């Protein structure tokens, strides 16, 4: 009987599922999209039951695909989730309101207030190794207390998206260091909840947090009724899971120092594993913990494929147009610059910013140049914030990595060789690899050595002439940013 391991990744736009064997070979995939509640106030929310429904559909698809290839049993399951979302449950364990997400900027004022109550950003870094930015979980709690006091009074359990899915699967509420480190109420050096931060909002909150477990501890096994629904065995072991970037790190072998991963999902992120926490935290860097016993400093911008999708939709085009239009246009988009802040922005810290288009003329205005300038803006945003890490090689993941031309742009603009894992869904792969490690007792590094493979045909090698062209376009991007927003 074939033994398989399941990874589930609850991203912003959808949930994916992947089944692998102990060699990292894929046996089944599944996908289901999520809706997104977006309001002009900056609210970005989803109903937690949407994630459960999407996970159910995606897992059922993956299981059906694997079973069609022969008899199999799923031994372990790991969940990867969009970071920072706030799920609140009442005494009866009922979800109180939609989850506010990582890209919610309605809570910007509350983030500033929390930082101030803790003595300012420098004091936060000194005390807890991290200072919260808009989007982290903590500001959502203060927002709830101020704006929806009746809902706040009902809160008995506070969870992140992947913890909520683990609870649905197993009935156990628990947290692990990687995702917990993005809450803003976690001491990232000591790897403990930061009670002082929660007390500054409300002393009742600390008692609402889940227990912390280690990266190699199992959460438990599946609830029998959930196992039956998903077509899985109730003995299937659920590993701790983690934030999607932490699971992407595992899925790209970013479990040792010196590896750099970049993700082009709804957000754009760039991260690199470290054995020790950062002593000094460069501006814009989120000094998170990894879900593998170390640390995972990262930069994250709030505008990536969401902005590309909006521009495509405004142009009446679909995602299949990306490669064609990038190929039709040249680095620098004939002088057009897009600051892609449709979602406000976190890096740089401009939660209330709006997007801007500069440099339009009668001769350069075309769909190809507009789309290119948008994708360049997204790419320059994350690369420009990533000078704290040097990379001669970048492992590129997320939906945007499917574009040949975008991969080449990242290589040309960064000067690094861009490589793509053979399994496209790195968050799912990382979660499945963690499930394999936890259920077999193997180290995550040894699992990574076996399971992470590259799709050599997709490697993009930087072209020196293009590097110079992108450097000029990026300099123009930075000038526009400075002139418009002073950063
Ligand atoms: N071939 C492609 N070229 C460019 N972008 C693509 C391509 N395929 C998918 N995408 C983008 O990837 C997005 C989904 O990315 P994904 O990493 O799954 O997001 P998330 O994890 O945040 O839900 C799509 O909405 C689309 O914009
Ligand atoms: O907030 C962050 C990282 O700190 C985001 O990276 C979220 O974790 C959402 O991820 P995607 O939906 O873009 O994968």
UniProtKB/TrEMBL annotation:
Domain Carbohydrate kinase FGGY C-terminal: 263-436
Active site: 244
The organism's place on the tree of life at top rank: Bacteria
Sorted UniProt keywords: ATP-binding, Carbohydrate metabolism, Kinase, Nucleotide-binding, Transferase, Xylose metabolism
The protein's enzyme class: transferase
One Pfam family hit: FGGY_C
Reaction(s) catalysed (UniProt annotation): D-xylulose + ATP = D-xylulose 5-phosphate + ADP + H(+)
InterPro entries with a match to the protein in the record: ATPase_NBD, Carb_kinase_FGGY, Carb_kinase_FGGY_CS, FGGY_C, FGGY_Carb_Kinase, FGGY_N, Xylulokinase
Site (Important for activity): 9
Positions annotated to bind substrate: 83-84
GO biological process assignments: D-xylose metabolic process; xylulose catabolic process
Enzyme nomenclature, EC number: 2.7.1.17
PANTHER family: SUGAR KINASE, XYLULOSE KINASE
Known role: Catalyzes the phosphorylation of D-xylulose to D-xylulose 5-phosphate.
Protein name according to UniProt: Xylulose kinase
Native species: Terriglobus saanensis (strain ATCC BAA-1853 / DSM 23119 / SP1PR4)
Gene expressing this chain: xylB
